Amino acid sequence: MQIHAPAKLNLCLYLGARREDGLHELCSLFEPLALADLITLPTLTTPEVGQSRMGVVRDEVVCPGVEGENLVARALAALRERGWQQPPLRVEIDKRIPVAAGLGGRSADAAAVLRLAAGEVADLEQIASELGADVPSQLTPSLALVRGAGERIERLPEPKPHAVVLLPDGGGLSTAAVFAEADRFGLGRADGELAELAGRLRSSAGAGASPLAYSELLVNDLEPAARSLRPEIGDALDALRDAGAPHALLTGSGPTTFGLCEDMAAAQRVANALDRDDAIVCEAGGTPQ
């Protein structure tokens, strides 16, 4: 079996107050991209590989080029703890989403594996929230209004097709560091303002329009903090605008920037004008399989 784990784009990100649990209240629009990791899931057929001496199922996760614990391994362990009875799996991940780039690759991979247990394991949403703030929204990749720290998800109609040009900028910008810098800057909006913005986003995006139709709402409050830590983010945004992108923004906590375009042809023209090897052109706004 092969499944796709689509990248996640923050079309906007409004920052609220820091909560008692250390997380921040947010208001954001998430949408999936055609850019996706490819996950292959052959069943392990060798008993001694798939089970320990105590009979406990042992899955394997292979992700070439990515070091450290993989969130997919934690997702599988959580499913097994809740009684998932499928045979042992060897999960092979072909990483196509840039790593540590603010595009939700780890969360997308974990959510894709959790989807395998739909109808077999209860409370997948709870498992997803335990794995990370972005995982619940990726259980069903679609345009969504996301509130809280990522746990309040409101699915919205599929938007008119559009495309993006991504500039990953090498990845490696710590999400925690960006939020800490935002706190140092005193960034953040009151709860009432977040609620008002959520209403405006719901009204605008709920009609199925292209995000370009409400680009005045596409703002990332974390941009000043991210640019403070990675000044070249500003250069990337300027480059996208100079290349003809109608709207350019930072996604999430960065460092990836993106140019929002009417269609793939327009996005390709922007990429050609940029003339950068790291530019990625892809469709946005659909519902990946």
N-to-C SSE series?
Answer: EEHEHEHHEEEHHHHEEHE
Q: Specify the overall morphology.
A: globular
Taking all Cα atoms into account, the compactness measure Rg is 19 Å
Q: Mean of the pLDDT scores?
A: 92
Major sheet summary line: 6 strands, mixed
For the record, what CATH class applies? Alpha Beta
| CATH level-4 homologous superfamily | GHMP kinase, C-terminal domain
Specify the structural class.
Answer: alpha+beta
Terminal CA distance: 13 Å
Please name the CATH topology.
Alpha-Beta Plaits
Write the CATH architecture name.
2-Layer Sandwich
Tell me what you see in this structure.
30% of the residues lie in helices and 25% in strands. It has 289 residues and is α+β, with helices and mostly antiparallel strands. The protein has one domain: Alpha-Beta Plaits (2-Layer Sandwich), CATH 3.30.70.890. Strands 1, 2, 3, 4, 5 and 6 form a 6-stranded mixed sheet that branches. A hairpin with a 3-residue loop joins strand 5 and strand 6. It starts with a strand and ends in a 5-residue tail after the last strand. The relative contact order is 0.18.
Give a brief rundown of this model.
This protein has about 290 residues and is α+β, with helices and mostly antiparallel strands. It has helices at about 45-50, 70-80, 105-115, 125-130, 175-185, 190-205, 225-230, 230-240, 265-275; strands spanning about 1-20, 25-40, 60, 90-95, 145-150, 150-155, 160-165, 245-250, 255-260, 280-285.
